[in-house]
Design brief:
The complex is a heterodimer of chains A (516) and B (505). Chain A has 516 residues and is α+β, with helices and mostly antiparallel strands. Helices cover 37% and strands 19% of the residues of chain A. In chain A, β5 and β6 form a beta hairpin. The longest helix of chain A is centred in the middle third of the chain and has 20 residues. In chain B, α8 packs antiparallel against α9, α11 crosses α13 and α11 packs across α14. The two termini of chain B are 16 Å apart. The mean pLDDT of chain B is 96. Classes of the chains: A alpha+beta (516), B alpha/beta (505). The interface between A and B is large, with 30 and 45 residues. Chain B: InterPro entries: Amidase, Amidase_CS, Amidase_dom, AS_sf, GatA.
Chain lengths: 516, 505
């Protein structure tokens, strides 16, 4: 896919030995309001191109914007959840630049008067000691409202990018969807943990936004998008404070569309920039594109200081001045803070610290909560999300929620095992089917004919056959070596083509051999 | 008969329609005939919709025949400035870049005209994107002043005022960003009101400068302007800057017409040097008439007005440079491919289209605005201009603490000759010196005829300004002055305008 040549990189350890990384993370969240930021058009994802448009979001001559009050409410709730101050009075501004997917050739955004500012979010990462977790406080610079652009589709050519394309199509359904941009202050002091902190921040933010019910937060659909700014500076000399060392030149990496990519992209940029600086060269201030497939970033457009968006206050809109009573009222609608929530859920579910950590790392807190709500046992839900699905997610470089498996599926799967319809290995086959899109667990089990044989006669007959064929093993068991029964159980399961309840087989074997 | 109809006021036509002495089809046809006869000379219209206007007229006549209760203005035809989006009717803003564009929606104001049952005769000529004071910047050729076809009809809304002055329409819609309703009214001997900013919805008004633009009525009498004002005014949820309050009682004010005990301020800074003698003489006579009618007149100083023009020519181009960015050939309007480029990029097509589609004045202001908003210059230009704007608003507030309305000549001169100021933008800009402060402060203003200047026999205008949302005061004062002047003249001023010879009639 990528045509870029690979740039030299330093090993991660060497990079961190020589340099101190400073990050800035910009997250764009598409709100899940029913209508767009400045007009009444629907916001449904995946609709036929250019069917959710009107004079306003198409930027037709004469059309005017009107602010979506629900979007402002969501923005305030996000600001409050991020411990921000909420502006008493703020305006929208026009960010002027020409681009075909932007109908007005300016984006209505907020510039120097964001709705929310000066906040923080605590994120937990596994402690360096390997025991428990440590908290890293991410300072939030601002959260502001803006509208999304349309989406260009470049047809022809090999890159899917505008250069070399035969022609381009634009879908304006996305134009005008409300976005909240959340910008961190420079994140210092994370050192070698920087990539982990970046990932944990986005994961925590995603969980928080999901709990606020303000966005679908689907990274793969683009409703949560992350741009990672990174710069390196020299390690402080002896006796010098690290923060006295001036910041280096930053790059902004775009197209980072999964949690795993956030971590990998930051890590890659650390190694790449370190190689440049180590060779005595200067890092170019630019936008870079992350390539999920090759795991590298490549140069996008240069972002020089000459880029001038000619911001000025949007004259077609009146200032947003949320009443303090409204803000206080919205404060009462906030969900529990994530850390507190995690403690409560851990207690409810009876997980050990280690188990809870795995759950958090897999980004599965919300998924398990929903699975339990759908009827799964906490243990069962954890087993599937952080066991089988997390294993696959790691192997494929995806998020656990990117397989099309829903909390309802997991609850159903867990129930079929608990009810004795499926055993574990059968359940794993069923999960394969669910991932392959064959339907719900019960539908897959039905279609594939997977079911534990409930016919005791058949099972007893199989046990008798196996005992007869293995007199030596049977004798061992009779003489008290109960663990030897395992070999017999395996034989029985084979005889039953896997469709037997192993527990029941064991019971019958033991009672036949007089030790049950 | 048809001559009588077209020379009647809109109020008279509305009454005749209500009494069923005449049908809307007859009234509309008479105006369409007049347009066919004289618009070859005047060129007030860019597009005439005879079919649509007659269909609307017929519908009103049918409803009236069926005994339906109709809007007081139902059946009275109207012309609309080509800057308002009209569903199914071309809307070019006087620019080549929008040639052939047919909006898929109606401006709120247009919907209100249609809802009132007012047939739309067509779209009127204007300076390209309302940039100009003479209508010479229209990409489709200038409009001529019915008083003297060698002279400009004012601008940007020269088409609307000329249409009304030439009896091609009893009423027209104009838009006023720095005087584009009032200055054309003054130089064509007609009436025009710029309502309070936010008083008439801007939804569907193709923006020149969003914070200054305001649509309003063009007419031949003060009462007619009030009647149209009340059709188009009032809150519109589609325009965030629309005032959320009932429309001011302008028709009652125009009918009442009383200035006894009112305090009227003459703005010291708007008059004197640079104002043509005939303009000043007619203005002073009008002020004296108001005194005779019982008003108390005082001189008021608004020192910041001296900086209004400079501030205006920073704010307007800044907003315009952004508002006009959407004309990029990607979605509608003109598309020009760059010459000598195989496989041009989107950016190259945008550039070629904007180069070919915009006229010189539009390009001049886009460049000015782009510069004024650039980082490093923003504070010195746009920021500073906004501060001046605040000072001008304060001058108005201080003045309105002392007086009920302010008055001044509308424009410093009568209509100048076509081409006379085309190569001198500053001279052209200075024509709006008296009208611009109202736009910067958002206050309402009206121009009505004050007579003709003896030196050139051309009409002059007087401007009345009132505090924001007090539009009714304009009509109260305007109606009194109009009556006194018309009595003095022995009939409407336009009756003294030279007869237009009907070409091919």
């Amino acid at each position: 896919m990528s045509t870029a040549t690979t740039e030299p990189v330093l090993s991660y350890d060497e990079a961190l030995e020589k340099f101190d990384p400073v990050m800035g993370l910009e997250v764009h969240v598409e709100l899940n309001t029913k209508t767009k930021m400045f007009c009444g058009c629907a916001t449904e994802f995946g609709a036929e191109p250019n069917t959710q448009v009107c004079p306003v979001c198409l930027g037709l001559p004469g059309a005017l914007p009107v602010v979506n009050e629900k979007a402002v409410e969501s923005a305030i709730r996000i600001g409050l959840a991020l411990n921000c101050e909420i502006a008493e009075w703020c305006r929208f501004a026009r960010k002027n630049y020409f681009y075909p997917d932007m109908p007005k050739n300016f984006q209505t955004s907020q510039y120097d008067e964001p709705i929310a500012f000066n906040g923080w979010l605590d994120v937990e990462i596994p402690a360096a000691s390997g025991d428990g977790t440590e908290v890293f406080r991410v300072e939030i610079e601002r959260a502001h409202m803006e509208e999304d652009t349309g989406k260009s589709l470049h047809v022809g050519g090999s890159t899917g990018r505008i250069h070399g394309a035969e022609y381009s199509l634009v879908d304006y359904n996305r134009a005008g969807i409300p976005l909240i941009e959340i910008v961190t202050k420079p994140l210092r002091g994370a050192g070698e943990r920087a990539p982990e902190v970046a990932k944990a921040y986005v994961a925590t933010l995603r969980d928080l936004l999901r709990a606020l019910h303000v966005s679908d937060v689907r990274m793969e659909q683009g409703s949560l998008r992350c741009d990672a700014n990174l710069s390196l500076r020299a390690k402080a000399a002896d006796g010098q404070a690290q923060d006295d060392v001036p910041l280096g030149t930053r790059t902004e990496t775009k197209n980072v569309n999964s949690l795993r990519s956030v971590e990998r992209a930051v890590r890659y940029e650390i190694c790449r920039q370190a190689a440049i600086l180590d060779g005595g060269d200067k890092v170019t201030q630019e936008t870079r594109h992350w390539h999920e497939d090759t795991g590298v970033t490549t140069s996008g457009r240069e972002k020089s200081d000459a880029e001038d968006y000619r911001y000025f206050p949007e004259p077609d809109l009146v200032p947003v001045a949320p009443a303090r009573e409204t803000v206080d009222e919205l404060r009462t609608t906030l969900p529990e803070p994530p850390a507190q929530r995690r403690k409560r859920l851990q207690a409810d579910w009876g997980y050990s610290d280690l188990e809870m950590r795995d759950v958090v790392n897999a980004g599965a807190v919300e998924l398990i909560e929903l699975s339990v709500e759908a009827g799964a046992t906490p243990a069962g839900a954890r087993k599937w999300w952080t066991g089988e699905l997390a294993r696959r997610a790691n192997a494929e470089g995806k998020g656990v929620d990117e397989f099309g498996v829903t909390p309802e599926h997991v609850a159903e799967l867990d129930r079929t095992v608990k009810d004795g319809r499926l055993n574990d290995s059968m359940a794993r086959q069923v999960l394969d089917g669910v991932i392959a899109g064959e339907g719900s667990p019960v539908e897959v089990a039905d279609a594939r004919g997977l079911e534990l044989v409930q016919d005791d006669d058949a099972l007893e007959a199989a046990v008798d056959k196996v005992i007869e064929a293995n007199p030596d093993v049977a004798e061992k068991v009779r003489s008290g070596k109960v663990q030897a029964a395992g070999a017999l159980i395996g034989q029985v399961m084979k005889e039953m083509k896997g469709q037997a309840d192993a527990g029941k087989a064991r019971q019958i074997i033991l009672s036949r051999l007089g030790v049950g | 008969m048809s001559t009588d109809i077209i020379r009647s006021s809109a109020a008279e036509i509305a009454d005749a329609l209500a009494r069923r002495e005449v049908s809307s089809v007859e009234v509309t046809s008479a105006h369409l005939d007049r347009i066919a006869a004289v618009d070859g000379d005047v060129h007030a219209f860019l597009h005439v919709d005879a079919e649509g206007a007659l269909a609307a007229a017929r519908a009103v006549d049918d409803r009236r025949a069926a005994g339906e209760e109709l809007h007081v203005m139902a059946g009275v035809p109207i012309a609309v400035k080509d800057v308002m989006a009209t569903k199914g009717l071309p809307t070019t803003c006087g620019s080549k870049i929008l040639e052939g564009w047919i909006p898929p929606y109606d401006a709120t104001l247009v919907s209100r005209l249609r809802a009132a049952g007012m047939p739309i005769l067509g779209k009127t000529n204007m300076d390209e994107f309302a940039m100009g004071s003479s209508t010479e910047h229209s990409a489709y050729g200038p409009t001529r002043n019915p008083w003297d076809l060698e002279r400009i009809p004012g601008g940007s809304g020269g088409g609307s005022s000329a249409a009304v002055a030439a009896f091609e329409a009893p009423l027209a819609i104009g838009t006023d960003t720095g005087g584009s309703i009032r200055q054309p009214a003054a130089v064509t001997g007609t009436v025009g009101t710029k309502p309070t900013y936010g008083g008439v919805s801007r939804y569907g008004l193709v923006a020149l400068a969003s914070s200054l633009d305001q649509a309003g009525p063009c007419s031949r009498t003060v009462l007619d302007a009030a009647l149209l004002h009340s059709v188009i005014g009032g809150h519109d949820p589609m325009d965030s800057t629309s005032i959320d309050a009932p429309a001011p009682p302008v028709v009652e004010a125009a009918r009442r017409g009383d200035v006894k005990g009112m305090r009227i301020g003459v703005v010291k800074e708007l008059g004197g040097e640079g104002y043509q003698p005939g303009v000043r003489a007619r203005f002073e006579e009008s002020v004296q008439l108001l005194v005779d009618a019982g008003a108390e007149v005082v001189e008021v100083s608004c020192p910041s007005f001296d900086f209004a023009l400079a501030a205006y020519y920073l704010i307007l181009p800044s907003e315009a440079s952004s508002n006009l960015a959407k004309f990029d050939a990607m979605r509608y309007g003109l598309r020009v491919l760059p010459e000598g480029v195989d496989d041009p990029s989107a950016e190259q097509v945008m550039a070629a289209t904007r180069d070919a589609g915009f006229g010189d004045e539009v390009k001049r202001r886009i460049i000015l605005g782009t510069y004024a908003l650039s980082s490093g210059y923003y504070d010195a230009y746009y920021g500073q201009a906004q501060k001046v704007r605040t000072l001008i608003s304060r001058d108005f507030s201080a003045a309105f603490d002392k007086v009920d309305v302010l008055v001044s000549p509308t424009a410093p001169t009568t209509a100048f000759r076509l081409g006379e100021k085309l190569d001198d933008p500053m001279a052209m800009y200075l024509n709006d010196i008296a009208t611009i402060p109202a736009n910067l402060a958002g206050v309402p203003g009206m121009s009505l005829p004050s007579g003709v200047a003896e030196e050139d026999g051309l009409p002059t205008g007087i401007q009345i300004l009132a505090p924001a949302t007090e539009d009714a005061r304009l009509y109260r004062v305007g109606a009194v002055l109009e009556k006194l002047l018309v009595d003095q003249w022995g009939g409407p001023l336009l009756a003294t305008a030279p007869e237009l010879t009907a070409k091919g009639a």
